[in-house]
């Protein structure tokens, strides 16, 4: 322990603590902030910063490891009473602790931001996402240490940072090393995270056990192969494990009773006021439309079965309609609820006898979406055909410019025309 403390006191990695902590905070709060108040989303946002911090960790670790040999410190280690592996391991651990400390600051910031706002259910999931990021920090540091054992200090730092940037991007795209979001219908597979952590720690131990370049002599090739095999094994553990998977619907969702029943994932508790505002606007519409008895948050109805991470199967049967509120968009919520209400309105229609050139359904949907969202400018863009966009424009302008009485007459007229002309009774 005294050796580790000594290494931490004099490690140059301590110089990067403040700038890397500030970088992590900027990444955390600069990307978006809808995650605040939702533990899974908060954990995912925090671990994204770990990917960027690991790039700097690789460069700094390479610089430290290369400086040890360039300054002849390995000769002192060889003459010491303590085994060289223990000295090297303490040196690596000291660097890792300093390089992981900025990530710890980001973890604390993310925790406080959500805990102060609401402290909803699911805090354990937050720390599971944190461990995904921790694996990347350790892996990046170990990779940098390996490069530092092979090259001169400046060259090692540059090569380690650039190569890890490429490697991290590869792992993020092929192995899900960076989880970009954490919706509540996804869960962390703790066993897979444990496998990754064990693999990177073993890789770090192998790197620390490598002899110094001056001692390699004829065994150079053998030790390179040992390091490469350890690296391949670690990468394989990432590629062959999936750390997140689809979660089964909870038995007791968070439900709010209004004009109809709205059910959320418990982790989405912060959206209850948004649901209540929408329900008040629904009750205040100038015309009462048929509504389903119950609408649920995305993936909460149980209508979808996931074969694997990419293949889904829609199950037969009757399920409550779903809405998507995962990013906190009132417009996404309004779109989903509007579609559910119109589906109930036209539930007795089997199929269209002919296409509707005026897109009456879409006019109604745009009108209802605007009313339920509370007006304003929608927060999404679309490249839909011009005739469809024109229909949406008619619906929004009707909601903005016509009186309540005129809107009611317009809605009733369009519903009657849609039913009488463009669909058959089921």
What can you tell me about this protein's structure?
By secondary structure, this protein is an alpha/beta fold. It has two domains: 2-246, no CATH class; 254-422. 62% of the residues lie in helices and 6% in strands. The protein contains 15 helices and eight strands. It has helices at 2-10, 17-31, 39-70, 73-79, 84-117, 123-148, 153-174, 190-209, 213-216, 220-239, 272-283, 330-345, 360-373, 386-401, 404-422; strands at residues 186-188, 244-246, 254-257, 261-264, 294-297, 304-306, 312-314, 322-323. Strands 3-4-5-8 form a four-stranded mixed sheet. A two-stranded antiparallel sheet has the order 1-2. A two-stranded antiparallel sheet has the order 6-7. A hairpin with a 5-residue loop joins strand 6 (304-306) and strand 7. Helix 12 (330-345) crosses helix 13 and helix 13 crosses helix 14 (386-401). The protein is elongated, with a radius of gyration of 29 Å. The N and C termini lie far apart (77 Å). This is ABC-type transport system involved in multi-copper enzyme maturation permease subunit.
What is the element string, with H for helices and E for strands?
Answer: HHHHHHHEHHHEEEHEEEEHHHH
Q: Could you report the average pLDDT, rounded to the nearest whole number?
A: 88
> What fraction, in percent, of the residue positions are helical?
55-70%
Question: What is the number of independent domains?
Answer: 2
What is the alpha-carbon Rg in Å?
Answer: 29 Å
Distance between the termini: 77 Å
**Portion in beta strands:** 5-15%
The tally of helices reads 15
Query: In order across it, which strands form the biggest sheet?
Result: 3-4-5-8
């Amino acid at each position: 322990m005294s050796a580790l403390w000594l290494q931490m006191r004099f490690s140059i990695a301590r110089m990067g603590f403040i700038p890397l902590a500030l970088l992590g905070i900027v990444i955390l709060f600069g990307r978006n902030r809808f995650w605040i108040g939702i533990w899974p989303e908060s954990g995912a946002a925090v671990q994204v910063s770990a990917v960027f911090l690991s790039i700097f960790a690789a460069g700094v670790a390479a610089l430290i490891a290369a400086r040890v040999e360039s300054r002849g410190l390995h000769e002192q280690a060889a003459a010491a009473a303590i085994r060289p592996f223990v000295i090297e391991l303490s040196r690596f651990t000291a660097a890792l602790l300093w390089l992981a400390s900025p990530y710890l600051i980001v973890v604390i910031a993310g925790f406080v931001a959500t805990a102060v706002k609401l402290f909803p259910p699911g805090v354990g999931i937050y720390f599971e996402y944190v461990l995904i990021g921790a694996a990347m920090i350790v892996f990046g540091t170990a990779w940098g240490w390996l490069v530092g054992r092979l090259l001169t200090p400046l060259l090692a730092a540059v090569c380690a940072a650039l190569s890890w940037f490429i490697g991290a991007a590869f792992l993020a795209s092929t192995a899900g090393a960076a989880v970009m979001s954490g919706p509540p219908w996804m869960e962390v597979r703790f066993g897979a995270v444990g496998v990754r952590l064990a693999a990177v720690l073993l890789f770090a131990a192998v790197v620390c056990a490598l002899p110094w370049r001056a001692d390699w002599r004829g065994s150079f090739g053998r030790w390179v192969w040992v390091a490469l095999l350890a690296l391949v094994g670690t990468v394989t553990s990432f590629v062959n494990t999936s750390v997140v998977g689809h979660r089964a619907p909870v038995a007791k969702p968070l439900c709010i009773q209004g004009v109809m029943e709205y059910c959320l994932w418990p982790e989405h508790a912060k959206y209850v006021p948004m649901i209540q505002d929408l329900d008040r606007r629904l009750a205040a519409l100038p015309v009462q439309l048929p509504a389903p008895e119950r609408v649920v948050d995305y993936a909460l109805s149980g209508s979808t079965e996931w074969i694997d991470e990419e293949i889904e199967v829609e199950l037969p049967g009757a399920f409550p309609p779903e809405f998507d509120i995962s990013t906190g968009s009132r417009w996404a919520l309004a779109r989903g609820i509007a579609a559910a209400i119109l589906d109930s309105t036209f539930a007795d229609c089997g199929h269209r006898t002919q296409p509707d050139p005026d897109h009456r359904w879409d006019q109604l949907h745009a009108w209802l979406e605007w009313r339920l969202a509370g007006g304003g400018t929608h927060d999404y863009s679309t490249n839909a055909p011009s005739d469809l966009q024109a229909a949406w424009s008619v619906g929004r302008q009707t909601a903005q410019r016509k009186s309540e009485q005129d809107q009611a007459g317009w809605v009733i007229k369009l519903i009657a025309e849609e039913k009488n002309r463009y669909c058959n009774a089921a």
